[in-house]
Design a protein that fits this description.
alpha/beta; single chain; 8-stranded mixed sheet; about 425 residues; 10 helices
């Protein structure tokens, strides 16, 4: 069914009895051209673009939970392309361009809101770093504005500008950044992929990868063996576990990242803001809740929950930036299992097993990268060569010494 004003009116008059399911619940076939492990945003986007851009429709997505039960539904919904390094900036800008046309393309309201992303700076050194980043963005044709203190104050007058420890001196602004409804992204890509013949197999846990004569021949699952010609892994925080089934050890660690939402408020913040003196970022949802997050919990885990010490740490950073948050109630929190790479940048590449492909290491940037990740991973699977904007996201860059170290913190996953 195509969603439109006409279909909405017609179903209103029929008592909403004629809506069709957004996707099928197929039984797995014995063999597919491509099997994708992971039914999150990246796996769904990969299947969608395999079918749409490359005509490969005999594809299965196997997901151990329900569609969108992982990190795609456990994030703070931010999209942006304000990166510095050549290995990242073209990729995330391509992703932002795909976001801008996504809703019309797959006929689903993902609630893309380009309300702007504001990165605060608090010292001369930070100002110089953001100036450099802004210049790098503009050299790639990406919008960037450097604001002084008064420019920020005109946008957000309720911030603490004169805090002795963290005075706000200005900000780097990308007006095309913003937020997207995370669940709707999963539903839109899932619906679009299903419409083109992709099988989305939910509640189907991968328990093993069968490798014969140096090639992956399929996956053992809780619903039986599924054979394939090409196998693609997009399992986010569980990438290490799944890759180990094929005898691979990945340069990533799994960490918990918490996010929070407050009680509903009247319109408060009409943009996205990140705190430069600590790791804190905040926006306001359409329901009125403030959505915010901060640092990793700091220990390795596969649990989708965090600890109270990090809750306190995040709230302290928020109050240092916006004292008025002290009067706001936090309603709930959740945790995502982050696949943290050693240099803080992702991996989209072939593995030593010729027909086994890898998509992981997304750290904090996984949600905003969803469209470009799917586009580039589909290109890699279909053509067996990397897409130009993902060419530097190689698996062997850690052995070769060609890191994409956006933060300049070295090869230590928990610091990124």
């Amino acid at each position: 069914m195509r969603y439109s004003v006409a279909s909405l009116i017609a179903n209103a008059f029929s008592g909403n009895r004629n809506w069709t399911p957004a996707w099928r619940e197929p039984e797995p076939k014995s063999r597919y051209d491509v099997v994708i492990v992971g039914g999150g945003g990246h796996g769904l986007a990969t299947a969608y673009y395999l079918a749409r851009e490359h005509g490969i429709r005999n594809v299965a997505i196997v997901e151990k939970g329900w569609l969108g039960s992982g990190n795609i539904g456990r994030n703070t919904t931010l999209i942006r392309s304000n990166y510095l390094l050549p290995g990242n900036e073209p990729f995330y800008e391509w992703s932002l361009k795909l976001w801008e046309g996504l809703e019309q393309e797959f006929n689903f309201n993902a609630m893309v809101s380009q309300r702007g992303v504001l990165n605060l700076y608090h010292s001369d050194a930070q100002r110089d770093a953001f100036t450099r980043r802004g210049n790098a963005m503009r050299m790639h044709g990406v919008d960037a504005e450097l604001l002084d203190r008064e420019g920020v104050r005109r946008m957000l007058p309720f911030f603490d500008y004169d805090n002795a420890r963290f005075p706000i001196m200005g900000a780097l602004l990308q007006r095309r950044g913003g937020t997207v409804r995370h669940d709707a992204v999963a539903w839109g890509y899932g619906r679009g992929a299903d419409e083109m013949g992709v099988d989305i197999i939910q509640h189907c846990e991968v328990t093993g990868i069968r490798v014969e004569n140096g090639r992956a021949t399929g996956v053992e699952t809780s619903r039986g063996f599924i054979g394939c010609d090409r196998l693609a892994l997009a399992a986010a925080g569980n990438s290490s576990v799944v890759a180990a089934m094929a005898g691979l050890r990945l340069p990533i660690e799994s960490h918990v990242l918490q996010a929070f939402v407050s009680e509903g408020l009247k319109p408060f913040i009409d943009t996205v803001v990140t705190f430069g003196a600590g790791h804190f970022y905040i926006s306001q949802s359409d329901k009125g809740g403030l959505v915010f997050g901060g640092d990793l919990d700091g220990y390795n885990s596969y649990a989708q929950r965090g600890n109270l010490a990090t809750v306190e740490h995040v709230f302290e950073a928020g109050l240092a930036m916006i004292p008025g948050l002290s009067r706001v109630k936090a309603l709930r929190s959740w945790g995502g299992v982050m696949d943290m790479s050693m240099d803080g940048s992702p991996i989209i590449d072939k593995t030593p097993i010729p027909n086994l492909y890898l998509n992981c290491g997304w750290c904090y940037g996984g949600f905003k990268a969803t469209p470009a990740s799917g586009w580039c991973f589909a290109h890699l699977i279909a053509r067996d060569e990397p897409h130009p904007v993902a060419r530097e996201m190689r698996l062997d860059r850690f052995a070769r010494g060609y890191l994409i170290d956006e933060n300049g913190r070295g090869a230590q996953a928990n610091l990124h």
